[in-house]
Amino acid sequence: MKLTSVLLLAACLHGSANKAFSQKDVKLNLDLTNARIRKAFEVIEKNSRYRFLYNSNTIPEDVRVNLHGKDISISDALNKIVRDNGLIYKIINDKVIAVTSADEMMQTVHVKGDVTDSTGKPLQGVTVTIQGRKRGTETDAQGHFEMDVPDNAILEISSIGYQSQRVPLAGSSPLHIVLKEISSKLNEVVVVGYGTKLKGTDLTGSVARITGDKLESRPVTGTLDALQGLVPGVAVTRQSGQPGSQGYQLSIRGSSSINGNVPLVLIDGIPGDLSLINPQDIQDLTVLKDATAAIYGARAADGVILVTTKRGRRSSTPNISYGFNLAIKKPGMMKKAATTDHFVKMFNEANKNDGDPQTFSDSTLAKIAANDPGVGQGENWSLQSYPMFYQNRNWYGDLFKTSLRPTHNVSISGGGENSTYVMSFGDTRDNGNIAAGSNASVRDNLRLDLQLNLLKNLKLDVNTAYDYLHTNQPSELNDAIDNGLKMFSYLPLKNPAGNYYGYQGYENPVQELTMGGQENITDSRWSNNVKLDWEPIKGLVWTGQVGINVEQYADNANYPTNEEHNWDNSINSLVRNNPNKASYTNWSSVYKNFSTYVNYSKTLGKHDIKLLAGASREKFTKQYQFMQGADFSSNVIFTLPLSDPNNLRAGDYWDNNPWALESYFGRAAYSYDGKYYLEGTLRKDGSSKFSPEKRWSEIYPSISAAWKISQEPFFRNLIDNDVVNLFKARASWGKTGNQDLPTLGLFDYIQLISIGGQYPIDGSTVSRLASLRGIASPDRTWETIETKNLGFDLVLLQSKLSLSFDLYRKHNNNMLVSITYPSTLGAAAPTSNAGTLLDKGWEFNGNYNSKIGAVQFNVGVIINYNTNVVTNLQGQDNYNLGLTQARQGYALNSYFGFKGSVIRNQAELNAYAAKYAGKGIVPGTQPNGYGGLGIGDVMYQDIDGDGQITTYGDKSKGHSGDAVNLGSQIPKLTYSMTGGLKYKGFDFSFILQGTGNKYVWRGNGNFGVPLSHFWFQPLDYFYGKTYNPDNTAAKYPRLSNNGTVTGNNYQFSSLWLENTRYLRMKNITVGYTLNNIRISNFKLHGVRVYLSGQDLFEFAKGTWDHMYDPEETHTPSVTEDANNTDYYEQNYPMYRAFSFGVNVNF
Amino acid sequence: MKTIKVASVTILLILSLAGCKKYLDLQPQSEITDLTFWQTSNDFQLAANWFYLHTLDDPHYYGTNNNDNMSDIAFGTGVDPVSSGTYVAPEQDNNWDSTYSAIRNANKLIEEANSSSIKADITPYLGEGYFFRAYNYFTLFKLFGGVPIINKVLLPTDTLVYTARASREVLLDSILNDLNTAIADLPAKSSAQTGRICKEAAQAFLARVCLFEGTWRKFHASGDANTLLDQAIAASKNVIDSKSYTLYQGKGDNSYRYLFIDNTSENNPESIIAKKYRTNINVNGWAYGVSWGNLNPTKPAADLYLCNDGLPIDKSPLFKGYDSCRSEFYNRDPRMAQSLILPAISIIRPQYDTYRPQWPGVDNNRNVNSGYMLYKFISEEPTPGDGGGAFDWNVLRYGEVLAIYAEARFERDNAISDADLDLSINVLRDRVHMPHLTNTLVSTNGLDMRTEIRRERSVELAFEGFRWDDLRRWKTAETVLPQSVLSIKVTGTQWASKVITIDGNSYNSYFYNAAPSQLENGYKLLQPGAQRLFDPQKNYLLPIPTKQVSLNSKLTQNPGW
Questions:
Q1: Distance from CA of B422 to the nearest CA of A (A)
Q2: Which residues of chain B does A768 touch, with a Cβ-Cβ cutoff of 8 Å?
Q3: What is the chain B residue with the closest CA to A355?
Q4: DSSP structure string for A124-192
Q5: Per-residue pLDDT tens over the stretch A934-965
Q6: Measured between beta carbons, which residues in chain B are less than 8 angstroms from residue A697?
Q7: Which residues in chain B are closer than 8 Å to A769, comparing Cβ atoms?
Q8: Residue A1043 has pLDDT above 60, yes or no
Q9: d(C-alpha B6, C-alpha B27), whole Å
Q10: What does the pLDDT look like over B167-190, one tens digit per residue?
Q11: What is the pTM of this model?
C-alpha cells in the first residue's frame, strides 16, 4: 500500500471527493463536545464502516472538535472535523479515510524485502507494518514484500509461530529478514469450542494440539492410524489389517463408563468420523481432555477432539499442491499351522498319550520326511476313506501376499481480498493382502471450503465434504481365513484334473475366495457445514451454524453356487451355496445439527473478558432395509428380479429409530494481566433416549483456572535471560453427562415388543413371533462424570525445552449398571444409574528442539499412566470365566481364570487326584483311558478351598470360586517417543510407540490350544512345547484327542495368558526437499521426496513366535463370555508398510 | 447500549430454538410397543407363536437335560457329570433362567388375553398361554422339584421376585390347573389350526405329567400316587379314544426309523407336539451333529432289544451272541437295527448321498469310543445342518401315549389286562411285527410284566431323552447309574482281530489290541463304575443354581447340594 502517494493524490483531488462520495453518503448521529480529534475518529469508526488511517505524528493530539446533530452526512462531518482543522482527507475504496496535513512534506522510500525462516524457507503471509500505523502489507508466496514508507519508519514484521521483529529503516537497500520460530506451544492458537480461540499459553485446561503436517507423508490408511503415539492421553488401538475394517478404537485417558462411550469428534464444529476424513485435509487437531470439554456436555464425557480443516489464505495466488504416496504392504505377524511333519508327529503323540492306536504309520512318517509327491491310503482319524498325501503346503501363509496402496492428493487453495477457497481431493486404493479373489478398499475424499466476507462484519463459511469408502471383498473372506488354518497341511490345492480339491467336505479356502462370491460395501457420506459469523459491534460475534450429514451405506453380497471336486474329479455331494443367494443391506441416515451462539470479548486495561452463550439441536434419523433373494436364475448376475420371487426374505433386524438432543451452554472467561485466568462453563442437555420425566440433565458446571507464574515480577530475570519462557499451573473441575451409550436403546423407557424370528408352525409357511423385549426403564437418566485435572506447563532454555505434566481423575458417579435380580423376574432388569467407576492417571509430555550448527533436531516423549477400577456395581460380583468387562473392585476388561500348572510326576498326580478327582472340572483318574487324568495334564488351584475346582463358588455357602484375576487387557502404561532431524534439505523423523503390561488370553479360539479339535492341525508353535516323557519341562500339557482330558486341560487358566506389551517402531521417514526449482518456464515452489516405513519392527512379548500381533486386541461386548471361539482365526493379519512419496507445490 | 441491544437479539435467537417443546418427543419408527400391541387376534397369535420356537425342546446331545447321555443307554464324546454323580452345583443354569423368561411371556399373554375385549376370539391362544406356562413349569419340576410359582408379570420392584419355593404338591397342582384350563380353552384337533397345540395335545401332555409324578410318588413313597395314575390313564385313554392320532406306518417295515427323519412330517399322523424344522425357515441344527458320534448307544441299550420271539436275549434261544461284529443283531426286534447301525452296512447319511459302508471311525462315524453307532435320527440328507434338515423333532408322539397308558394301567393296580396291552404295547409291536406281550407270555417264560412294560417304553423311546427321567421316577437310578458304562464285546469276538472282513470288504478294527484298562469282562469300557456315584439323598434332583440361592434368601437348596 503506497500510503503517501495515495495521500498526496487525495490532497490534489479533494475537491472532487464530495461528488464521488455523495452517492453512498452515510448519515451519522454525533454528539462530540470538546473531543480530541482522534477520539472523534474513533466515534465515527464505531458508527460506520469506515476506518481512519493517519500518521500519529501528523495529527496533533490537542485539537478539539465540537459537533452535534442527527443525520449528519459523513462528508459534512469530515469537513467539519478534518478540513476545518487544516487537514485533508481522502476516502479510499469506500472503506478507509486517509487523513494527513496538507503542509506535511513527507519523505518516502520504497522498501523491498524478503522474509524467510531460519532454514531459509520463504515465508508467505507475513505481516509487515509500519510501527504506529494500522496498515501494512503481507509477503507473497516467495516471501517477498515491497511498500512505500516514511524514511524514518520502523517496520514491524510478524507472523504466527514466529518471534516478531522490529527493523528500523536504513536506506533503501533490500531487507533480508529471518524470523525466528518460537516454540509452537507458546504461540499457537487453539480452538476450544464454539468459536473461541485462545493462545496456547492462555489455556486453563488440559488441551493437546497437533498440526496436520504431523499426519502427512506417512503410509497410513487414515487419520486414526496416523494419530497413534502422537497425542498425550489419546490411545488408538486396532484389530485387523483388513482394508476398510481395521477396527480402530479411540480413547482419551482411559474409560469413563463400563458402557463403552467414545470421545466426541467434531469436524469444524459438527460431529463427524475420524475414520473417513482425509488426514491431508486436517489443519489442526485439538484434544480437550479435562473439564474444558464440559462445554460439550452431552457427549463429551470421554473428551472431545476438535478437527479444523484447512482453509485458504486471503489475498494469495493459487497454491496448488499434489502428493503421491505408494505404500507397499507386507503381511506382518501371522499364524502358522503345523507342518505336515509336525502335525503327524503331534497326532501320534496324542494317540500315545490316550492309549489309542498310532494313527499315522511309520511308513507314512518316512514318506513325509522324504517329501513324497505320491498319494496313499487315508490314515487320518475318520478320514480313512480319503487319500493321504505326504507333502507340505502352507495354506494359511499362501493366502496372503504383499500388496500396494497408492494414494493421490491434490489441493488448490488461495483467496481474494474478501474470500478464500480450498478444494482438495484425495484418492487411496488400499489393496488387501489376500492372495486370491478381489479385496480392496477405495477411499475418495472431496472437500470444498469457501470463506466469504459478505459484508465487513458478516462472514460466511461454507464447507462441504464428500467422503466415499468402497470395499470389495470375497463374500466368504472370514470363512476362508478360518479354513486357511484348518486345511490339513498335507492337502494339495488342486486335484490332478486341475480343479480345486475339496477334501472330504473341507472348504478349499482358495476356492472360497475366488468362487465364493463378492461382497461390496459402499459407505458414502456427504457433510455440509455452513457457518455465518456476524460481528455487529466490535468484540461481539454471533454465529449460526447448520450441519447436515447424509450417509448412505450399502452392503451387497452374493453367494454363487459352487461345486467341490474330489481327488478323482468327481463332484462332491456337498454343493456350497445351493441354492445361490444374495443379500442387500442398505441404510441411509440424516443427521442435522443446528447451533447458534454468541461470543463476546472485551479488554479493559488489564482485564480481559470472554463470554459465550449458545444452544444447539441435533436430530438423527435412519432408514434401514435388508433383503435377501435366493435361487437366482444366473450364477453370475445377482439382481433381485432374477431371484425366485417366492424365496425373498426381509431382515429381522430393522432399525429406523431416531434420536434427538437439545442443549444449552455458556462460558465465561476472565483473565487479568496475562497472569491469572479463570473460566467457567454451564451446560444442560435433553435427550430423547430418556423418558420425558428423566429427559433433562442437571446443569453441568465446570470451572478451571490457570496461573502464569512466569509473568510474576520475581520471574522477570529468568524470563529476560531466556532461561524460563513459561511456567504455568492449571487446575480444572467439571461434570459432564453421558447418554451416548451403545447399551442404551433409543426407546427403552417404553415396554417394547420384539417381533422377529420365524417358525413353521403349520409345517410349511413362516409364522412370526412376538415376545416382550426386556423390561421398560422409565427411571433411567444421564450418567454423570466428574473430571478433575491438575497440571503445569514449563518452557525453558530459549523455548527449546517444553514440559508439561497433568494429574487427572474421572469419576462416573451414576453409571448405568445392570443389577441382577433373581431369574424369577423373568427378564434381565434394565440398567439403572447405580454404579461408579474411577479412572485416574497422569500424563507427561516433554519436547526438546535445538540446533547444532546447521542441524536442527527435536525429541519428544509422551508417557501416560492410567488405571481404572469399577468401584461400585451395587455389590454385583458378576464375572465370566475369561474376559470380563466389568466386575466390582477390578479394572475393566480383566481376565478371570484358574491358576493352572502341569502335573509333572506321579506324586503330584496322586495327591491332586486324591483330593479333587471328579469334583468340579477335574475328571477321575484313569491314566491313558477315557475320563482319565494323567501326568502331563493340568492341575488347578483350589483357591476358595471348598474341595472342588469350580469357576464360581456356592455363594450361599460363602465360597468365592477358583477363578482369579489374571490381569487386564487394557495397559496401564502407554508411551511414545518421537524425534526428528533437519539438515539443509534433508529431514528425518521417527515415532516409537509402546505399552506396558497388557494381557491377552489365547485359549478360546480354535487355535489357542493344540489339537482342540482333531479335524485340523494345531499351530506349529506348539510343536515340541507339550509335555511328554522326553520333554518333562514342557510349558504346555500333554496332547490328547480325548474330550475329557482336553476338557480338563484347556480350561481358562493362566497357562494360556500372555503379556503382550510391546515397543514398536511406528514410523520412520526420511525426506529431501528442493525449493524453487525451475524447469524451463515452469516453476515449482517446492518438491519433497520421502521414504517412510510404518510398523517396521518391534520388541514384543507374548506373540507366540510372531504368530499374533501384539496390538491385536479384542474388545468384548457386555455379554460376551470366555467360550467365544473362532475369534482369532478370522483375524486378517496386520501388515508392515514401506512407502515412497513425493509432494509438489506449484 | 448497542451491546445490550444486540445481545438481547441474539439471546432471543437462541431462545427461539426452544420454542418447539416437542423436539425431543420422538416416536419409535421400527419398534412395536406395549401401547400399540395386544389389539387384534393376530397380535395374540404372534405372542403364542413365540413359545413353539423358544420353549419346545430339542434332543441336544449336550447342554440341556433331556438327552440320554445322562443315562445308562448312551454315551457322548466325554463323561457326563450328571450321570457320573460328579456334577457340581452351577452358578447359573439356563434351564432355570430360560423357563422363567418363558413363564414371564406366558403370564403376559394370559393377562392380556383375559383382560382383552376380544377374549372370545382369542381363546385358543389363551389356552396356549396356559399350556406353555404348564410346559415350562414341568421342565423345572422334573429337574428341581418344587420351585417358586410366579403367575404374574413382575417388575424389578415387585417383592414377588423374592418368592420361596412352592412344595412339590402345590407346584404340581398349579401345573395341572393350567393344563386343565388349557384343555378347556383349546380347540379339538379336528378344528385346530395345523401344527398348533390342541385339546388332545394338552391331554397327552397331562398324561405325561401325571405318569411322571404318579410313579415318582409310588416309588419314592411320597404321597398319593393313584389319583395321578388315574388321571394319566384317563387322559391317555381320551387321546387314544379320540382317534386323532395313529402310529406312522408310511415306510412299511422301515416306518419306525423313518418316523424321525421323514421330511413330510407335518403330515405325520403320530406327531402330537413337534418342534418343526423346515428348509430356510427353521434349520435342524442337531441333525448333523448327532450323526457325528455325539450320542452313542451302549451295551445296556443294545441288550434291551428282545429277540424276535418276544423274549429277552438271556432267555431266547434265538440270540446269536457276540462272536461276530454283527451276530448280536441277528433275530432281534427290528427296532434294534433301525436304531443302531449294523456294522459295515451301507447306508446314506449326512454328507454322503450315496450308500457307503458304516464302520466306527470311518467317514463321520466318530463314535470310536463305543463301537455302537446310532442309526435313529440319522438323516439321509447330505446337508441337514446347512439350510436343510427339513424333518421335525417329535416332542410328544402317539407312541409315547400308548406307553403311558400301559405303564399307568399297570402301576395303578400292579396288573394289566391283555385287552389293555392290545390297546397300547401291542400296537407299538405290531408296527415292527414283534410278537404280542401277553400275561401268558410273561408267566410262561418267567418274565416280569413291569420290566417288559418298561422295556417296551425304553426301546420305543430310546435316545429320545426319556431315560434319565424314567430311571429317576422308577427310583432305579441309584442302582443303574453307578455301574461301569460298557459297550461292544471285544475279547473273544471279531472286534479283537486287526482286520475284519465283512461282505467281502476289509475294515480295520479300532478295538484291536485294546489296553486292559479299556476293557471290563471283555467289553469295551467307556467309564468305570468306580468313577460313577449316585447318592439317593441328593442325586434324584438337580441343584438350584447357586447364584439364585444367594440372590434370593427365601430360595432353599435341594438336599445334599
A1: 32
A2: 46, 49
A3: B515
A4: SS-EEEETT-S-EEE--TTSEEEEEEETT-EEEEE-TTB--EEEE--SSSPEEEEEPB--HHHH-EEEE
A5: 889 999 999 988 888 888 877 777 888 888 99
A6: none
A7: 46, 49-50, 52-54
A8: yes
A9: 38
A10: 999 999 999 999 999 999 999 999
A11: 0.77
